[in-house]
Every structure is written in C-alpha cells, then in structure tokens.
Amino acid sequence: MTNRKTALLSVFGALLVICVLQEITGAINPVKTIKTDLSPDEISITTGSETINLNLKNNSWYVGDDGYLASKSDVDAMIKAVQQIKVLDKVGKFGSALDDRYELSDEKSKTVRASKAGKELASIRIGKTSSTGSQTYALVNGKNDILLLSGNLSSTFAKSASELRSKTVYTVDEKNVQSATVTMGSKTWGLENTAKQGEKAVWSLTGNVQNFNLDQNLAQAWIQNICFLNINSWISDSTPLPANKLTSFQLVTKSGDTILVDIYESGSGDNKQYIGTSSATQHKFDLTKYLTEKFAKDCEDLKVKDNA
Predict the structure, then answer these.
(1) Confidence (pTM)
(2) Which ranges of 190-302 would DSSP assign to H, the alpha helix?
(3) Which residue among 12, 69, 237, 271 has its CA within the 20 to 30 Å range from the CA of 123?
(4) Whole-number Å distance between alpha carbons of 84 and 158
C-alpha cells in the first residue's frame, strides 16, 4: 500500500471517529427548546417581596399602573426569552443542597411569569449565571429539575421598575407634522406646512414676528428635531414647578392630534435646571440644556443666511 493511500485512510478513519462522537454527544445532550408561539400581554418579575408588573395595553407596554411606558428594547428581550427557552442540560433536583449552589432559594432567585389573557404561558425561576456569563441555572414551568439554560437571563430581567421606564415622551412621523409653535414670553412663532397633500413640505412662518426669508432646509431640520422628545430622566410627580416658564411648545399633526410641552427653568449659570410637562404623559421630567434648546428655538436661527 502506498504512503498516499495510507494517509488517506488515516484521515478517513479520524473523520469517522469524529462523526461517531458527535452523534453520540448529540444523542446524549441535545439542545431542547421549550417554546410558545403566543405572545404574552403581562410579565411579572418577583425578587424577594418585590414584584414588577409589565402590562400590554392598546399595543403599548406599561410599567406598573402609573402610566409609564416601558422600554421597547427591554420588553422585546423579555418576550423572546420566555417564548423560546433553550435547555442545554439538567444538573440536579430542586429541594436539595444544590438550591444554594445555584442560587435558587427564595432570597437569591427571581421568578418571571408570562401570561396571556390570564393564562400562564411560561414561568422561569432564575438562579445563578454560569462562569461564562452566557448560561443560567433555572427552574422552568414549576418543575423540580434544575436546568442549565442558554443566555444570561439574570441580566435580561435584572432592571428595576424605574430602569424599565421608557425615556420617550412622544414620537411623531416627520411627514405627519402640520405645524409647530413656540411661545417664549410675549413672542410666539411657528411653522405651518402649506404644501398640498402628498407633496414635499413647504414651511411658512407664523406668529407675532416679522416675516423674513425662511431657509426651508433649516426649517425641515428643526421639524425633524421636535418630532420626538427623549428625556433625561423622570422626576417625582410631587416636584413643584419653578415659577419661570421658559417655553410653551405645541405640535399639531395632519391627523389632528395636538401635543403640548411646557418647560420651566430654575437656577442660574451652571446650576440651571429644566423641568418639563407634556400632554403626552401625566408625569414630570427632567431635561438637559441641549434638549430644552430644541423647544426654546429662536425663529431667527431659521433665516436664509446672507452670503454678502
């Protein structure tokens, strides 16, 4: 037998051994997926004596009963985690010394329940994260088997109620804006879309200001900026509003919806604070100087620049 044939047979034999081992390993420890095709309308996260409830209402998720919108990215990650639970291994039984080892006791674990129309779809008692940080020890659907699950579920469900609150007060499609108005003291100015339906927006200056040559590109850029309000943070509803109202803002959509934003200013210099209220939420919020400047815009900034 030639050396070449011997080498080829050796390689073939090695590949055969690898294939057999993979078949055996796969048969012993296959990845099992516990899944549901239904999407929940309620998710609860219990840690010790504290429970956070997330509820779906009118196609939007809310944190608790206080009217705070939930962060979409966080909720999407949670829904994905409960709809497809990937089991890598079974490591023991609950109710033994392993409970503490895998942090599945009442004091150290957190329990997630997802339901739809009052019917539970899935429950996960989340314990310790593996040393790699990419797997989690848990109990699933009330059973006593301690399972090793794919993913860092502790991280997915770790946020507090305040951390789960969305920082978005409102968002509007830029193409759906009909007008926007700013009032600061006795001065009121605004932009009105005078284009015909389906045509590119044409902005006209309104208010008690002297008319000037409006830069359409600058006007459109400002409209883009005020189509959404992502705040710095939420503050206590009992926080008193400062006496000085810096600006009142109104946005009207082509469908007839009106959004109001009032921003109040306190302090001076580097210690200035901006507190906002809006018709889009029942809660008060804190704004940075940069965010405030979007709604305290001077119409003079939208003039066509003199190149002379």
Answers:
(1) 0.79
(2) 216-225, 289-295
(3) 69
(4) 19
